[in-house]
Every structure is written in C-alpha cells, then in structure tokens.
C-alpha cells in the first residue's frame, strides 16, 4: 500500500500536530513539501486536495482529508487499536478538551507564537500590544487548565493520554521556545503535564524531524466571538432567569439540562441535535451578566452552552453535540457513521471556516449596530466579510455539486446538524441569505435540511421576530 502522505511543511504547527499523532500511532508517512513561501498551497494541484488552500492535507490510500484536527481524529479512529487508544469513547471530558484546544488554547497561542517566533524570522518586529493582549488571553486560558489538572486529572481527559493532549503538542512546544514560556513554567500542574507529554518517545521523534524556531509565512487565526446572537435582545421579557433560579426550577422529569438561552446560535445547535435524537431536556437560562459559581463550575470559561446529562458535564457546543451523537448513536438517525474521513473533515470545516466567516458577517450587520453605542454597519467592512463568506460557500457549492447530497456524502450527519443554527441566522440576514440563494446546491441543501421535522420543532420553540 502507498505510504501515508502528509502535505505541508515540517515547520508548520498545524502540520506538526498531525505528524505527532502519526508518530504516536507508529505509522510510516512521508512529508510532501508544500512551501507556503512559494505559494504552493494555492497551486491547482494542492487546491484539488484542500479547496481552502491550507496546509496540512493528508492522503491515506484513497482517502484525502484536510483540517489538522479532522485528520488526527480520523487517524485515531481508523488506527484505534494500533499503539495507544487516543479516543476512548464515549468520553464527555475528551470531547470537551478537544474543543477547548481548538477554540480557546489555539486562538490565544497562535497569534502569540506568530508575533514572538515567526514574525521576527520574517524580518518583522513583534507588536508589543498584540503580544500583551494574547499573553493575557492565554494566561486566562491556562488558569483554567491549571485548575482542571489540579483536580486530579493527570491528562486533559482524565487518567489516560488522549488526542486532547496530543493536539496541544506543536503549539505548546513553540510557546515554550518564546519569551512567554513562563506562562507554562509558572503553573505547576500545566508544567508537570507539559513535562510529561513532551517526554513521550513519539513526540521526541517528531521534534527530531522538525527544527524550531521556524520560518513560515502564515496568517494566524484571529480571535472569534464564540457566542453570536440570532437576535440582539437575548434576555427579552420573562424569559430571564438566573442559572441558580433555573436550576432550582428544573423539573425532575429529565436529567438533561442545556445551559444557554434560546437565542444563542451555539445553544440552538444543541437543541437541534436533541430534537433529532428525540431527547427531552430542560433549557436552563443563563444570565451572562451575572454568572453564578454553579454555572462557572460547569463552564469554566463562562460561556454558553454547557450541558449536563446525568453525571456527564460538558461545555463547548461541538463537544456537546459530538458527545450526544455518540452516546445516543442508536436513537433516531445515526449521525456519526464511523470511520468517515469526509465527516471528520466537514465537521472541522464548519468549525474553522463556515462558523467564523458567517459569525463575523452576521455580527457586523445584525448585532454590533444594536449594541449600546454601536454605529451602523460599515459598508466596506460588510463587503469584505461578505466576500469571505462567499469564498467559503464556493467551496460548499463545489463539494455539494460533486455528488454529495449532504456534507459527508449520501446521508445526513452531525456535520449538517452543526450548521443549522448559523444557517438560520444567515436566512434572517438578507445580505448573507443572498449569498446562499446564489449557489443552487447550497440553497437546495439548506432547503432539504431545514425541512426536517426536528428542525421545524427547534425553530418553533424559538421566539424569533421576522427579519
Ligand atoms: N484549521 C486549519 C488551519 C490550517 C492553517 O492555518 N494552515 C496554515 C499554515 S500553519 C496555512 O496553510 N496558511 C496559508 C493560508 O491560509 O493561505 C488546520 O488546523 O488544518
């Protein structure tokens, strides 16, 4: 069989994230050089592998994947019994900490590493204000890690080393090579965890094949808001209850509690899935201006949604949705047919391309102007953000036109479900809705998935004003 091919540069942290897991699994692979400095990632040959034109991409036999976390999850699932099992399932803690890496650690650490390590290699000087901001962000993130690890968690998902730990290796390594290494050294549990995971033979082998500091030209992913309201007045009327009151009021019929509010798209993502699975739940409204210790104990970053299902406590919406889809695999439609390279890829496309682009556009048009002191949308900014959404939707159009009825192929999966709440926000934002309408396959896909009874039930439970 042809060896596994990892496309990228051995010096890119997102590529090294994958190399680390291939080595942990003892898999032979070759790195096919895609040099960002020569623009090789925008060459048609590479675009055929990854239409977003980013490294890494991976070819394993007939399967081609992109998005480093999708690749890693696919490797960990497909080669589950080879080397350590990196994805023991179902594990609420594992799902949560995979998403913490993706949506808290990475957005804080990557701009910092760019400023301190990469920019100087390109002849630039670090911007002190940017460094300070992201160092402060990362300090807060690592405080949550410190508390989590101090609570008897040797690794992020508990007693065993998993993919959640492995996905941190490349950026942790680079961070410890910068002047902000003290962010790790000053937190004893984070430091002990790092000392442990960075001593693994597979990681030492990975390090031996790359040389840091690096000389790579790439744009770091900017920080994103993680909660985007469908409507600007989230606490309208009598719906407002504190988490404490709501907890006290929770009815005993179900042990499932969704902490959020009905108009947050990240909360609606979970409601849509629970309805697909036919699962009852109580919506526990969270007052984000007055977060209670009870709520913060479940969601240490203070964000909604969070979810309780019996003894399982989770936060991060995509972790919650994945956990529900795994735990209740045989209830209603199976939304996670595994192993599926396409499914893993499109789950991550939603998370790292679709959501950020759409959230920024919807925020600029619908949310920011209605905030206290918010001015009307800036047409030039709106045009720029709309272009980004159009670029993302072009990739969706190409993918759906290539014989994929749904994102992962013939069947409706979690990859589709995870888009629905944000697509609803799009449908209520005319400038964004026209971008969907202009792409016949995207429009047909949205019409198909939004006609599902579970989605109609979800929307009916939201009290949304017309656009
Ligand atoms: N979410 C993607 C991010 C990949 C990414 O940002 N790759 C960078 C290099 S580290 C890149 O290809 N940048 C070139 C570009 O975006 O044009 C992943 O994890 O694979």
From TrEMBL:
Q: Which family does it belong to?
A: Belongs to the GST superfamily. Phi family.
Protein name as it appears in the record:
glutathione transferase
Signal peptide bounds: none
- All copies of the GST C-terminal domain together span 87-223, 336-467
A Gene Ontology cellular-component term: cytoplasm
Respond yes or no to whether keyword Transferase is given for this record: yes
Identify the taxonomic lineage of the organism of origin. Answer: Eukaryota, Viridiplantae, Streptophyta, Embryophyta, Tracheophyta
What's the Enzyme Commission number for this chain?
A: 2.5.1.18
Q: Name one GO biological process term.
A: response to herbicide
Query: Species name for this entry?
Result: Lolium multiflorum (Italian ryegrass)
Q: Which UniProt keywords apply?
A: Transferase
User: Which InterPro entries does the record associate with it?
Assistant: Glutathione-S-Trfase_C-like, Glutathione-S-Trfase_C_sf, Glutathione_S-Trfase, Glutathione_S-Trfase_N, GST_C, GST_Phi_C, Thioredoxin-like_sf
Gene3D superfamilies with a match to the protein in the record: 1.20.1050.10, Glutaredoxin (3.40.30.10)
Pinpoint the GST N-terminal domain residues: 2-83, 254-332
CDD domains, sorted? GST_C_Phi, GST_N_Phi
């Amino acid at each position: 069989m042809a060896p596994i091919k990892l496309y990228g540069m051995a010096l890119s942290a997102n590529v090294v994230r994958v190399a680390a897991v291939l080595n942990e699994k003892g898999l032979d692979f070759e790195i096919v050089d895609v040099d960002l400095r020569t623009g090789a990632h925008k060459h048609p040959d590479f675009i055929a592998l990854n239409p977003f034109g980013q490294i890494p991409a991976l070819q394993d036999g007939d399967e081609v994947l992109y998005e480093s976390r999708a690749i890693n999850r696919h490797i960990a699932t497909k080669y589950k019994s080879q080397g350590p099992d990196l994805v023991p399932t179902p594990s609420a803690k594992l799902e949560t900490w995979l998403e913490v890496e993706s949506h808290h650690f990475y957005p804080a650490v990557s701009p910092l590493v760019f400023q301190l390590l990469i920019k100087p290699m390109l002849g630039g000087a670090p911007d002190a204000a940017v460094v300070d901001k992201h160092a402060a962000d990362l300090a807060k993130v690592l405080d949550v890690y410190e508390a989590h690890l101090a609570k008897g968690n040797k690794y992020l998902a508990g007693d065993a080393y998993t993919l959640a730990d492995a996905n941190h290796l490349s950026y942790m390594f680079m961070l410890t090579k910068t002047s902000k290494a003290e962010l790790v050294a000053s937190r004893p549990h984070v430091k002990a965890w790092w000392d442990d995971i960075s001593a693994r033979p597979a990681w030492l082998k990975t390090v031996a094949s790359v040389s840091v500091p690096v000389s790579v030209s790439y744009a770091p992913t900017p920080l994103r808001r993680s909660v985007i309201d469908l409507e600007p007045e989230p606490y309208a009327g009598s719906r407002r209850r504190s988490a404490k009151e709501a907890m006290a009021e929770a009815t005993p019929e179900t042990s499932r509690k969704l902490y959020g509010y009905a108009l947050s798209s990240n909360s609606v993502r979970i409601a849509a899935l629970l309805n697909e699975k036919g699962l009852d739940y109580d919506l526990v409204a969270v007052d984000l201006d007055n977060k209670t210790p009870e709520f913060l104990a479940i969601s240490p970053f203070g964000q909604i949604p969070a979810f309780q299902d019996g003894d399982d406590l989770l936060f991060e919406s995509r972790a919650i949705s994945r956990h529900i889809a795994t735990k209740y695999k045989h209830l209603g439609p199976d939304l996670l047919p595994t192993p599926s390279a396409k499914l893993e890829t499109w789950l991550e496309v939603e998370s790292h391309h679709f959501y950020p682009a759409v959230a920024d556009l919807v925020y600029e048009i619908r949310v920011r102007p209605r905030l206290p002191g918010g001015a009307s949308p800036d047409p030039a900014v709106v045009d720029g953000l709309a272009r980004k959404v159009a670029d993302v939707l072009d990739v969706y159009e190409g993918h759906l036109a290539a014989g994929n009825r749904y994102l992962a192929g013939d069947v409706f999966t979690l990859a589709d479900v995870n888009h629905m709440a944000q697509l609803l926000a799009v449908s209520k934002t005319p400038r964004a809705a026209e971008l969907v309408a202009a792409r016949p396959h995207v429009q047909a896909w949205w019409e198909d998935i939004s006609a599902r009874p579970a989605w109609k039930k979800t929307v009916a439970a939201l009290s949304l004003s017309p656009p």
